[in-house]
Each structure stands twice: as C-alpha cells, then as structure tokens.
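Re: the request from the purification team.
They wanted to know what the chain is likely to look like in 3D before they choose a buffer screen. I agreed to run a prediction and write the result into the notebook, where they can find it.
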Amino acid sequence: MDKLATLLLIMMFVARSICAQETNTPSIISTPIEASLVSAAAKGGYWQLKFTGTVPLTKPLVISKSTIFEGVDGFVPAMSASNLCRLFVVQPGVKLTLKNLTMLDGHHTSTNMETGGIPAAAGGFLYNNGGDVVVSNSIILNHDVIGQFGADGNNSFNPTDGAPGESAVGGAIFSRNGSVLLSGCVLNANDVQPGSGGRGADAVFVDDGGNGGNAGQGAGGAVFIESGNLTIFNSLISSNLVLGALGGLNGLSIGVLTFDGIAGEASGLSGAGVYLGGGATGVVSGSTLAWNAITNAGGQNGAIGKNSAKGQKGRSGGSAFGGGILNDGVLRMTNCTVTANMLSAANGGVGGAGIVNGFGTDGGDGGAGGSAQGAGLCNIGTAFVQNCTFSGNKDKPGTGGAGGVGGPTLGRNGATGATGAAAGANLAHLSGLPFNVVNSLLDNPLGGTSIAGNILDLGGNLNADDSLVLKGPQSANNVIINLLTLAYLGGLTPTMSVAIGSPPSPALGIANPVYPVTFDQRGVVRPTPSGSGSFELASFQLQILLTGTNQALLTWPVDFASVDIQRGSSLPASTNWTTLTNKPFLTNFTYQALIALDTTPTNTLISRFFQLKIH
C-alpha cells in the first residue's frame, strides 16, 4: 500500500474515532475563563463552549487525554494567548479535536516562561508531538515563532566565533510523528522569523578575528509537518510570512599577518504557507493558498583586504523557496487555487576593498544574490498535482553585490556577484522523485518562468509561457488564459474564473479524461468532458426565463468560442436534440439568446428542454 492510500486510511480511522467520542454527552463550559479550559484539558472528553467571548490563556493547554473543544451554534467562542505563549501542546498517542473556534495571538520563543514542556522554537499555535489533531470550521490567526539570536563571540586571548542563530518553524502549527487534519479552516497572518547569527569576537591581542555565526533557518509560516501526515480540505491559507535573518558580523584582527574573521551566512527560508518535510505525507484538496510571502535578508559585506590579501568576498544573499508550499515529502494536490504568493530573495554583500599598501591588492568579489524558486509550489520530493490553478505567483531573485574597490595603484576591482536564479514562479521541481501534473492551469508567472525542472506532463495542462514543452494530450504552451481576480464564487474557498471574451479552446482547458475528478473546488459537479483547473468552467447553470407565451430567454455566465443551442424533446438523457440557429449576445456580463417556443398547446412543454453543446 502506498503512502497516500495509507494516509487516507489513517484519516478515516481518526474520523471514526472522533465520531465515537462525540456520541458521548458533552460537558458545558459557559464562561470564558482560562481555569475552565485548563481543567477540561486535564480531564479530557467532550466539551462544548457555550459562550461568546475570548478566553485569555497565560500558558499552553497540554493535551494528555483525548479531548474535544467545540463551539456551539449561536455562540462565538475564541481563545487568545495575547502573544505570551503557544495555545496547545498535544502529547503522543492523544487525539485533539477543535471545532467552530477562533484561535488568536499565539507567540512562542524558546525562552518563554510557559512552553508546555517543549521549548523548541516551533508551533506558535499548536505543537503536535505525535498525536492526532483535527481542526474544523475554525480560524487560526496571528500566531508566530521567533528564533533567538546567536550569542556573540568572546573577546579574549583566543577570539571565538559568533554562535549560529536559532531556527524557527511552524508559525501556527508544528507536527512530528502524528497527524493533522484541517477542514474548512482559515489560517491567516501567521509567521516565523529565525534568529540572526552572533558577531565574531574582535582580537584583544595579536590574533585573527572570530567568524560571524550563520543565521538560523525559517520554514512553514503557517504549517510545518516534520513527519507524519497532513490533510487539508476546503481551507484558506493566506498572508502567512517567513522572514529572514542576517548572518553575524566578522570580528576584527590585530597585528601583522593576522586576518579579520568571515561574516556569517544569511538564513535560508522555505514554505511560507506549508512546509512538508522529508518524513511527511500530505493531501491538499479544495483549498486556496494566496498572498503568502517569504522575504529574506541580505548577505553581509566582505572585510577589507589585510596583510597583502585581497578583500574578502561578500556573503550570498538569502534564498527563498516555496511561497505557497515547499514539499520534501509525498504530496497530492487536487482542486486547489495557488495565487499571488511571493518570494523575495536578498542581495549579495559587497566585496571588501583591496588594501592601499604597496601597489594595492584586488577588491573582493561581490556575493551572489539569493535564488527565488517555486513561489507557488516548490518540490524536492514526490508530488502529484491534479486540476489545480496557479496564477500570479512571483519569484524575485536577489542581485549580486558589487565587487570591492581595488587598492591603488595596481589593485583590480572585484567582480560583481551573480544574480540569483528565478525560475518556476508557478511550479519548480528542483530534485526528488517524479513530479506529475495533470489538468491544471499555469497562468501569469511574475518575475520568473512559469515552470522549472523536469515535470511530467500527463495532459490537460495549459501553460502561459514555453518554459517547459508540454506534450501531453490536451496540453498547450503560450496560452493566454485571462483568469479573473480571486473571489468567492461558491463553495467554502475563493476561486478564479475566466474572463468573458477569453481566447478559444484550448485556452479554456479540456481535461485529459484518463484522470477524472468528479467535483471542482466549489463542489460543482464536473461534466464529461470536463475542464482543466480548479474552477469548472464548463459546468454552469443554464437559466431559462419565459418572457411571453411563445418566447424564452436563455442565459449563461461564461463565453465559449463555439456553442450550439439545442432543443430536446424529452428528459432525462435524451439523444434527440435539434440544433437551433439562434446566436448569443452579450448583456450585463452574461450571454443570452432568445428562443421562440412552439405555440401549439400540446407542444409547448416539449419545446422547453434546452442544452448548450460546447465545442
């Protein structure tokens, strides 16, 4: 049995277990008091929150027994940690279910007074340490994880290096060796920021300066799954951030034949929305990932030349990977919209200047700019993407730092650092096992190519440029798709339709029928043949309005290049359709057609069955 099938079985088991728990008579919490939640968490069981208001938490709720917290219709319960601590710690083998709740303002650092027994810089809202967590119909808002700065080196007879900064992961959710199921949730404005590296110590006597510490790593602005299983259904993951940190400055040397230290490297950042680790398996379906962003820190400048040496090279700018999702595990995505996610890599540091002694030495080269790849989805594992829409995702690489100025009179200026890579604004496959893509729209990449890497085209894919030659059935390159702005068009999550007047098929997308999906992201039934992308363009309601005893007005919302209006004699599943000569006209952003009805009383009803045949 493969990992995806195993995950689905696990999710079914979790759902059955939760249903069994919910058949018990619930206990009631009627006032927003922290002590009531602490007591309930200690006891476990099924708790209904029948109050409107916010419970202020001063320490995490440690879940050591299977527990359900459910908001009840008619009440608006919330929990807030007021930026003091994380909200939940789930212990191994325990189930936690959260329903119809708002969870706010978790804040975690490893130096918090209250950590729930786990000080690691991870999980600003929830740290799942091997349990099973289900969150449904809930809002997870404004949580963060902040890494500590690395300590500076000690100035002594032997100057020491600065310590590395602390990494920070999982702004809202961190999970290890367990499972997390998110259904009908909003995860918004969560973030992580690792710590900067410590400064290298200066020499006190004749000695080299210490090196600066490297910055910590940052990943999973909203969700970080180190290992275990993740399932996301019908959820919005938006405006989550991963912010960069600087490498530590170099220490200075004293004396002849000594050298300044080397500055530390800037942070590496990934997965602003979701980070799926190498030991994790994930299913993401019917969900939207939008406006998630990574902004990294610049490379430190190189030290000036010393003792006949050229100037130091500038450090590289911080890179950024995976604005919507970074997958290092096994991922399946279906019926998802991934839009307006942004990667901002940082500029390289300036090379150090050459020395002025003698004839002068060369300046150091500038540091390379950071790379920005996979603003929509960056894959270094195994991925299968089906009926998804990617649009407006942006890769912004860092520029190379300027070369250091050579010392007079013969010193040469250092070379300018290379600009970082920017490829795969929608999809980037950097390494790992096969990355399969089918029946998906890859539109409007910003600041880079649409696709990067060896992606296997299974058909029904439309790509806005020619960054990868698509050869699958019903696939095409250089297609102007004209997707509209993200909006709520039905269903639980926002989606993107196509503008009226879009180019003809294949710009509307005809799916490869070998890989059928019954519903689109909104839950609308897909016809046969169906369309590509998460929004089923071919599945709309044909509306009929009787405008008189012998006339009907047919209306539909999407423009197709070639549509036959057909009249049927019976329903259902009639094969006796007659094509009419009526031509549609555009009025108020809909297409309409006037149809004459038979006036003979016995035939009036027969003439009112219509369909559109789309070419």
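For the purification team: The chain is about 5% helix and 30% strand.
Please add any questions underneath this entry.
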